[in-house]
Design a protein that fits this description.
The chain is mainly β. The protein starts with a helix and ends with a strand. The protein is globular and about 50 Å long. α2 links the parallel β1 and β2. Strands 1-2-4-7-12-17-22-26 form an eight-stranded parallel sheet. The protein has a six-stranded parallel sheet with strand order 3-5-8-13-18-23, with no helix packed on it. The chain is built from two helices and 26 strands. Helices cover 9% and strands 33% of the residues.
Length: 268
């Protein structure tokens, strides 16, 4: 009997550990500002701190509001996803269960590159910058907007991707995040303004986009919505499920999506 009791305790402890920790973030924060509940939420300026503090099976819950990449004017700072961590947005800020979150009335949590002065000239180059991620890195329920990577493009990433940049560049590089229920809008870059998947030079990027919308993103050269780059022996093959591309533009060619030696998997 004692053996079964100990086994039961172990199973319960494992289940609690496997569930992970939830960290809460609101625009202004609350209470002790330690992220342990909505009443003690991290402030919006600590969103990346909440993500970095998380580990496998943890979740970050983000309330409605706008969250900026930085409080400085440093255009190189971006949000970064994390393996094993799911970042959920568009909460009212009272939910105790994920099932209580509703996206039926639209997305309400915004990740923004609008730093510095009004207008896009000094905006963040990239709102989300990812690298060395597997598909356990998940983001769900956000608007991603107002990036401006207007730098001259390089294979290593300058000018590539505004809303989200997935860096699988060079041999050994990989980036396979899972992106769900997100709107990429009004981002600017030289190539792939909404999202850029970079598998150049033997790299590997296989992101998955589910129930996403790419709208009104503008490329200074090509691919306003999304670009995937697998030149020089790489792999850049996103899976795009039940997603919409509309009113994306470019100065030279291709408004919605461009693939450089890439295979795009599209399904409803």
């Amino acid at each position: 009997m004692k053996k079964y009791i100990l086994l039961s305790i172990f199973i319960i402890a494992f289940a609690i550990n496997a569930q992970g920790t939830t960290r809460f973030v609101t625009p202004s924060g609350a209470g002790t500002l330690d992220g342990t509940s909505w009443a003690n939420a991290y402030p919006g300026t600590s969103l990346q701190i909440a993500i970095d503090a998380s580990s496998a099976t943890d979740e970050v819950w983000v309330a409605a509001g706008t969250y900026y990449t930085t409080t400085t004017t440093n255009r190189t700072i971006s949000f970064n996803m994390r393996n094993g961590v799911t970042i959920y947005g568009s909460f009212v800020g009272t939910e105790t269960l994920l099932s209580q979150r509703t996206l039926a009335n639209g997305l309400t949590s915004i990740l923004s590159g609008e730093i510095g002065a009004a207008g896009i000239a000094d905006n963040s180059y990239k709102v989300i910058y990812n690298q060395q991620l597997d598909d356990t890195a998940i983001i769900d329920g956000f608007i991603v907007e107002a990036a401006n990577d207007n730098r001259s493009p390089t294979n290593a990433g300058n000018g590539l991707g505004g809303g989200m940049y997935n860096h699988g560049y060079n041999p050994g590089g990989f980036c396979h995040p899972t992106v769900r229920n997100c709107l990429f809008r009004q981002n600017t870059a030289s190539f792939g303004s909404g999202a850029f998947n970079n598998g150049y030079n033997g790299g590997n990027t296989l992101p998955t986009y589910i129930n996403c919308v790419f709208s009104q993103n503008h490329a200074l050269i090509a691919a306003g919505g999304m670009d995937s780059y697998a030149v020089a022996g790489g792999t850049a093959s996103p899976t795009v499920v039940n997603s919409i591309f509309y009113e994306n533009t470019s100065a030279e060619s291709v408004g919605a999506m461009y693939a450089w030696l890439s295979l795009i998997h599209i399904s409803e």
